[in-house]
Amino acid sequence: MASSSLILLSLTILVTSSLLLIPTVTAQSAPAPGPSGPINITAILEKSSQYNFFIRLLNQTQAGDQINNQLNNSHEGMTVFAPTDNAFNNLPSGALNNLTEQQHVQLVQYHICPKYYSLDSLLTVSNPVRTQATGQDGGVFGLYFTGQANQLNVSTGIVDVPIYNALRKDFPLAVYQVDRVLLPKEFYEAKAPAASPPSGRSGAAADSGDARAPATGNPAGNGSGKMNVGLGFISGIWLFCMGLLI
Ligand SMILES: *[C@@H]1O[C@H](CO)[C@@H](O)[C@H](O)[C@H]1NC(C)=O
Ligand SMILES: *[C@@H]1O[C@H](CO)[C@@H](O)[C@H](O)[C@H]1NC(C)=O
Ligand SMILES: *[C@@H]1O[C@H](CO)[C@@H](O)[C@H](O)[C@H]1NC(C)=O
Ligand SMILES: *[C@@H]1O[C@H](CO)[C@@H](O)[C@H](O)[C@H]1NC(C)=O
Ligand SMILES: *[C@@H]1O[C@H](CO)[C@@H](O)[C@H](O)[C@H]1NC(C)=O
Ligand SMILES: *[C@@H]1O[C@H](CO)[C@@H](O)[C@H](O)[C@H]1NC(C)=O
């Protein structure tokens, strides 16, 4: 008697658990269309701990979701230039605080190209290279690439920085580390005469061999100043998000 009620009990458990299992299994198989699932830019950046600022920006401006969706729907692929947390900390004070909400979105979009570029192809690409950022007049913000002795630089006309590390390099998504935030010259054109695009004549041919050299510098110095910039920027983003909610 005891055994039959045990059997009954275990049968009940079996049926209930299989009933519970069915929806779980179907729910899990649904969002995994490809063999390896969709590409997730956040997950790629999270493998290293030095992109927290950029991850937050991608999330808050929803550019991250946009990348993931666009990758799924385009045959061109995409390229992302990911500034490190250090890059944000080293921005001159006021550089971000003064930006409008729209400019914050433009800034993120400026780090994203709607096409896949290998490092080799960037060495010979024709400038300017279009980004996802556009001005009010619909004009596309461009990036400039200069290659010299196998060293590749990306320039905005204001910022010029080497590219030496790929977080991901296979089609359809390339992700490259940049040690400075790529500030579009369009942000400053109204205030000051724009710096002309890079000429490629640098004269500094000495560092052709070791492409890793410029990674660790801390030229801006002064930690308290940096903290102010970071906090100002974060509060700016927060205000921006509140604006979105309203
Ligand atoms: C992408 O990855 C992040 C972090 O791993 C995760 O929080 C997020 O839900 C993922 N997004 C999608 C669409 O899978
Ligand atoms: C992304 O933003 C949402 C709210 O906008 C927040 O709940 C979530 O924690 C954020 N995720 C990350 C990884 O920052
Ligand atoms: C990818 O695109 C296909 C068709 O274009 C769509 O059915 C699928 O839901 C998309 N997947 C994601 C994760 O966006
Ligand atoms: C930011 O704005 C303030 C006040 O408008 C101005 O004095 C300052 O020069 C600006 N800084 C930058 C970097 O544009
Ligand atoms: C790349 O930029 C650095 C400054 O960040 C500069 O010293 C170097 O000459 C540039 N190289 C090229 C090839 O433009
Ligand atoms: C750092 O900046 C603060 C004010 O922003 C200043 O009082 C201090 O002297 C600076 N320290 C150095 C080492 O430059």
From TrEMBL:
SUPFAM superfamilies: FAS1 domain. Residues 192-215 have a biased composition (Low complexity). Pfam families: Fasciclin. Gene3D superfamilies: FAS1 domain. Residues 1-27 form the signal peptide. Residues 192-221 are annotated as: Disordered. It is a lipid-anchor; GPI-anchor. GO terms for cellular component: plasma membrane; side of membrane. Residues 38-182 form the FAS1 domain. Its main location: membrane. Belongs to the fasciclin-like AGP family. GO terms for biological process: plant-type secondary cell wall biogenesis. Coiled coil: none annotated. May be a cell surface adhesion protein. Keywords: Cell membrane, Glycoprotein, GPI-anchor, Lipoprotein, Membrane, Proteoglycan, Signal. This is FAS1 domain-containing protein. It is found in: Cell membrane. It comes from the Eukaryota.
